[in-house]
Backbone:
């Protein structure tokens, strides 16, 4: 058993996870749409990087026999004076590294690690991985540790060779050409796996030499700085897998456990979270479900979770009120006071706030994507592409709720058409409800695109500037209203619309019979209303009978859009229609959810104000 670089990365977060990873415990990262989206982008970026080395040789990846894979790579490296290898396996003791690109010239080796993270070579200064004080940036450190681990393994395997470590990342300063856009990189899933892909490139490989959107950054100084620490950590971790069965390193129970991928459903027989926490895993409501847990102030600056665990406690209600402080304290206090006995909190002042909002009321939601490889020529990597909006409008008090929507289905830059179509609906008067700051951020991005792409439309520019203004009183963030005025124990410590809606829906039967929302009403076998997001319809390609992934959250929407415009939807009308309908019903529910919550707050679902 070997300690791989992915093992090392996981163990750097929590050494106990190494045991669960090696024994393949159930994980929340399996079938995770966001992780799949990141993986898709990573595969495309890696393919682009490899195309910059047309003479590169792809090595056979044999996970079942790493010794054989290393032997093949070693033989080529020792025999060839000059060679480029893709994903060679390198072994040293119990350490294993599979290197993305290894370029050998004599006894000098350039070790290139490819990441889909980004830098901006025009704005980040001479070293994009260090801040203004010269320190390694915290959000880039894990990537540098990854390269350092590989350098250490390679040095041990080939101590007489000189190594030049390089991080190959996406460069937001570069503009895409016709040969470096997403549509030129086609993912082909391997063996039914959602997380393993071949990428077929359909552009002109020779053109990528000057048209790619990557930066190859020398990180020798950073690797040299990190090498002693990484060497010590890797050797310690390798000792825990230096046998047929890994050794489980004792966990440190802390606030970081809140986001552990091994905190899976209780029904799972192998449950890493339960093995770490023992009986304290079963406590309900759990301390890890507290709002803004990291902002608690326990004695002597201790980790709040560790402090409670050391006292044999893990309940949310075990949190002393004296630990609450700062701007989040009022919300935290509401959660403590309304969790036991469980009861909804709805501050009466919210109706007064809502009555002050000018009609018409527009409830809007956007779907947009920031892809590593741009969708269209002239776009920068990770530049936002807005492709869909939904709006529910109430023109006057007691008025009918009207739904409008727009979606792009063409392989064309859509941001300006997106903005103009939205402006035609919501205009310059009335109240615009959003959920979080995302919509205003997207509008500001589109405003910047007008200038960057030379789009001469002063009226649109002014409208985007006004609506995107963080201080515009016309725009009301319903998530902020939730934090200030509404709590339900079912929401726990979260305020996402995906948790607020089920709490409202379950406890307001008047919504079930509303003409606009009755289509979402379903009951489980116990007669309990089902979360409306769980009732969304799955569509199939009528020709092939193939089911498309159900769109129930934002990342799945982005992946469906990419499939609609650049994948199966571009090749088949039935697939195109099915994907379009999935996107439309999802985005419509997002704004319908906002209306439902608004009705719950105002009492209008029951015929109130």
Residues:
């Amino acid at each position: 058993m070997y300690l791989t670089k992915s093992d090392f990365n996981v163990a750097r977060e929590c050494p106990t996870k190494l045991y669960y990873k090696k024994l393949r415990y159930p994980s929340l990262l399996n079938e995770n749409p966001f992780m799949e989206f990141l993986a898709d982008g990573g595969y495309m970026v890696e393919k682009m990087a490899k195309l910059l080395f047309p003479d590169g040789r792809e090595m056979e990846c044999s996970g079942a026999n790493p010794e054989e894979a290393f032997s093949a790579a070693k033989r080529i490296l020792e025999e060839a004076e000059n060679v480029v290898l893709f994903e060679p396996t390198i072994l040293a003791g119990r350490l294993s590294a599979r290197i993305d690109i290894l370029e050998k010239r004599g006894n000098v080796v350039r070790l290139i690690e490819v990441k889909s993270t980004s830098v901006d070579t025009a704005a980040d200064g001479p070293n994009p991985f260090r801040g203004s004080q010269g320190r390694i940036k915290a959000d880039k450190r894990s990537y540098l540790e990854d390269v350092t681990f590989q350098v250490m393994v390679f040095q041990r395997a080939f101590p007489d060779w000189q190594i030049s470590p390089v991080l190959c990342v996406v460069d937001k300063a570069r503009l895409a050409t016709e040969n470096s856009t997403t549509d030129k990189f086609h993912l082909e899933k391997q063996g039914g796996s959602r997380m393993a892909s071949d990428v077929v490139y359909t552009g002109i490989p020779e053109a990528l030499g000057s048209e790619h959107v990557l930066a190859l950054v020398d990180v020798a100084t950073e690797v040299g700085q990190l090498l002693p620490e990484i060497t010590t950590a890797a050797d310690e971790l390798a000792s825990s897998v230096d046998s047929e069965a890994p050794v489980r390193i004792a966990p440190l129970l802390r606030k970081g456990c809140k986001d552990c991928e091994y905190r899976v459903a209780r029904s799972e027989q192998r449950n890493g979270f339960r093995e770490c926490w023992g009986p304290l895993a079963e406590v309900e409501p759990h301390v890890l479900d507290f709002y803004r847990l990291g902002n608690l102030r326990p004695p002597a600056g201790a980790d709040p979770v560790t402090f409670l665990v050391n006292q044999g406690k893990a309940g949310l209600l075990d949190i002393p009120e004296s630990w609450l402080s700062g701007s989040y304290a009022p919300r935290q206090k509401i959660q403590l006071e309304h969790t036991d006995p469980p009861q909804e909190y709805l501050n009466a002042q919210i109706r007064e706030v809502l009555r002050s909002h000018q009609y018409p009321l527009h409830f809007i939601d956007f779907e947009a994507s920031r892809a590593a490889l741009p969708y269209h020529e002239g776009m920068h990597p990770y530049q936002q592409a807005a492709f869909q909006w939904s709006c529910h409008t109430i023109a006057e008090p007691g008025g009918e709720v009207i739904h409008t929507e727009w979606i792009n289905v063409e392989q064309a830059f859509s941001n300006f058409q997106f903005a103009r179509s939205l402006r035609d609906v919501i205009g310059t008067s009335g109240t615009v409800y959003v959920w979080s700051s995302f919509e205003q951020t997207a509008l500001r991005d589109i405003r910047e695109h007008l200038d960057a792409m030379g789009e001469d439309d002063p009226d649109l520019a002014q409208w985007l500037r006004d609506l995107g203004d963080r201080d515009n009183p016309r725009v009301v963030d319903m998530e902020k209203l939730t934090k200030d005025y509404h709590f339900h124990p079912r929401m726990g410590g979260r305020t996402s619309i995906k948790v607020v809606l089920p709490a409202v829906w379950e406890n307001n039967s008047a919504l079930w019979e509303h003409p606009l929302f009755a289509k979402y009403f379903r009951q489980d076998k116990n007669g309990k209303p089902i979360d409306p997001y769980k009732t969304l319809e799955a569509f199939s390609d009528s020709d092939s009978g193939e089911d498309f992934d159900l769109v129930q959250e934002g990342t799945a929407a982005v992946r469906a859009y990419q499939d609609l415009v650049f994948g199966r939807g571009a090749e088949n009308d039935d697939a195109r229609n099915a994907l379009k309908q999935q996107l439309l019903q999802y985005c419509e529910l997002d704004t319908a959810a906002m209306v439902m919550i608004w009705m719950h707050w105002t009492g209008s679902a029951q015929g109130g104000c």
The two ends are 66 Å apart (CA to CA). Residues 350-478 form one domain.
